[in-house]
Design goal:
The structure holds two protein chains of two kinds. By secondary structure, chain A is an alpha+beta fold. Helices cover 37% and strands 18% of the residues of chain A. Chain A contains five helices and three strands, in the order αβββαααα. In chain A, helix 2 crosses helix 5 and helix 4 packs across helix 5. In chain A, 49% of the residues are buried. About 5% of the residues of chain A have low confidence. Chain B is built from 15 helices and twelve strands. In chain B, strands 2-8-7-6-5-3-4 form a seven-stranded mixed beta sheet, with helices on both faces. A three-stranded antiparallel beta sheet of chain B has the order 9-10-12. In chain B, helix 2 packs antiparallel against helix 10 and helix 10 crosses helix 14. Classes of the chains: A alpha+beta, B alpha/beta. The interface between A and B is medium-sized, with 33 and 29 residues.
């Protein structure tokens, strides 16, 4: 077994915010099955805040834990605050990830950003701090595997 | 976690990774740490006793594969035996040619050894397998050319359990005049293995796969076949594997071989009965689960599946909480972060290969263990599917 922290195991065993938001304001999908991990994030936005965040994840223990903690970190934040959630912050909040699972934290932050970008595009708004699509979050030859 | 974990039922079904040393094997080994500790090469009674012990183990291991004692080279593992076979036989034949054929589903110790040779100027051909993991003997024959010096195809695959038609492949290879090696690490000690019936020139095996100790392996090489050693050193193992012999491990492997030879039929019957209950029971208990490998031409202790829409590591983590130990060939559970090359070579799509589960049954398992697995796995699968985007998509499309 990978050496997961108690917090990773807790979020894997009891993931928060699992599911789909039927009338989501933004949806973000990252990963692909070849690489072994897929995450879909759904957001509901009210008054510029993430009123609700839900996710679905296909992947390892770390991938599930990353999705869960990212959703928890994002919920209630303004869009500007939420786009500042970085992979490093996600990993830190989980009390660390095994070295070869570190990539999972990228996927969580990316899926959330993707959902916010989807929302911003639909609304035609600009969000401070939101990266343009294609800045290092496209799946290339190299898999971002958890 | 905590105390609760100490009281749960423990079901070890990861016997393809390694087995538990039998009590009689441990008993046979123990004197060779403190009582008999001489160097087998030494010219005194301490040395004589140690040497007699390894020579007796050599006979036991040779008997397991139907070869002669002098044809056994003890190694540190199955991996070392495979390296010695691929590199040692190839280097020994280098004046005849530089072409080597392997199958696409070989263990990394064959696959990577071949790739190392490729970098050193050898030409490697990988023959494909069908959906069951079978190598087609005719496909091997079609790829043999004048420069082909060695063909290596495993006897049984450790990930999907399929037993290859080695005798047919070996016949074609021998007709063409090349050497034939088979990696029998997964099969030796589990099913009858006879080097003459199989018609091979070299065969690898590992003690820890049949209730012997870790750190024990052997390569059987037919008399007069040249093997270049991997290491330089002394005269041990006929100069083909230098280094002071691991006497206790060799003795343990010998004892395990002796027990296996006697017990193969009874073990096979018991294990295949449990295996078949899993093969029937899991797809009946869980939707969208399929067997990997061949349903009948497979190792008696081996049941392997792909559970669709979810990934293996999550299942292993949950099963471990229930005291059940199994393996997976998913990208996430591999250190290399790649899905099993065996499943991919069999044409299984990546997303399905990610949900692979491998049950390696052992002599300590019983029918109640099978019931326990059949009870514990379905809710785990259900739980993981509830959060899977692939499952959600599938259910939507179904509606």
């Amino acid at each position: 077994m990978p050496a997961y922290s108690d917090k990773v195991m807790d979020h894997f065993m009891n993931p928060r915010n699992v599911g789909e938001i039927k009338d989501a304001d933004g949806i973000g999908e990252v990963g692909n099955p070849v690489c072994g991990d897929m995450m879909t994030f759904y957001i509901k936005v009210k008054d510029n805040r993430l009123e609700d965040v839900k996710f679905q994840t296909f992947g390892c223990g770390a991938a599930v834990a990353v999705s869960s903690i990212t959703s928890e970190m994002a919920k209630g934040k303004t869009l500007e605050e939420a786009v500042k959630i970085t992979p490093a912050l996600v990993a830190k909040e989980l009390e660390g990830l095994p070295k070869n699972k570190y990539h999972c934290s990228n996927l969580g932050a990316q899926a959330l950003q993707e959902a916010i970008r989807n929302y911003a595009k639909k609304k035609g708004i600009k969000i401070e701090g939101l990266q343009e699509k294609g800045e290092g979050d496209e799946e290339g030859e190299e898999c971002e595997v958890c | 976690m905590g105390n609760e974990k100490n009281t749960i039922r423990k079901v070890y079904m990861d016997n393809m990774a390694t087995t538990r040393v039998l009590p009689e094997v441990l008993d046979a080994m123990l004197p060779y740490f403190r009582d008999v500790y001489g160097n087998p090469q030494s010219i005194h009674s301490w040395g004589d006793e140690a040497r007699e012990a390894i020579e007796s183990a050599r006979e036991q291991v040779a008997a397991l594969v139907g070869g002669d004692a002098e044809e056994i080279i003890f190694t540190s593992s199955g991996s070392e035996a495979n390296n010695l076979a691929v590199k040692g036989l190839a280097q020994g034949q280098i004046t005849k040619g530089k072409h080597i054929i392997i199958s696409a589903i070989e263990h990394f110790s064959v696959l990577h050894a071949a790739r190392t040779l490729e970098k050193a100027g050898f030409e490697i051909t990988e023959v494909p397998v069908d959906k069951y993991g079978f190598v087609d003997p005719d496909e091997v024959a079609r790829n043999i050319k004048k420069e082909t010096i060695l063909v290596s195809v495993m006897h049984a695959n450790g990930e999907v359990g399929t037993i290859e038609p080695i005798a047919d492949i070996a016949r074609k290879v021998k007709e063409a005049g090349a050497l034939f090696h088979t990696d029998a690490v997964a099969s030796a000690g589990s099913i009858p293995v006879d080097v003459n019936k199989l018609g091979v020139d070299a065969l690898s095996l590992a003690g820890n796969e049949f209730y012997g100790p870790k750190g024990s392996g052997a390569l059987w090489v037919r008399k007069r076949v040249r093997v270049i050693p991997l290491m330089d050193g002394g005269v041990q193992e006929g100069g083909r594997r230098p280094g002071t012999e691991n006497v206790a491990a060799i003795v343990g492997m010998g004892k395990a071989a002796e027990v296996a030879l006697k017990d193969i039929p009874a073990r096979g019957e018991k294990l295949s009965r449990m295996r078949d209950r899993l093969i029937k029971g899991l797809p009946a208990a869980i939707d969208h689960v399929f067997l990997t490998g061949h349903p009948t031409e497979r190792l008696p202790q081996h049941a392997s599946f792909c559970v669709e829409f979810i990934e293996g590591e999550g299942m292993l983590l949950w099963l471990d909480r229930d005291g059940i130990a199994v393996s997976s060939g998913s990208a996430c559970t591999s250190k290399a972060l790649k899905a099993s090359h065996v499943l991919i070579a069999m044409g299984i799509p990546h997303e399905k290969a990610q949900g692979s589960l491998l049950f390696g049954l052992g002599v300590d398992n019983n029918e109640a263990d099978i019931d326990y697995v059949l009870e514990k796995l379905p809710p785990i699968v259900n739980r993981l599917r509830q959060m899977s985007p692939l499952y959600a998509k599938f259910m939507k499309e179904k509606r």
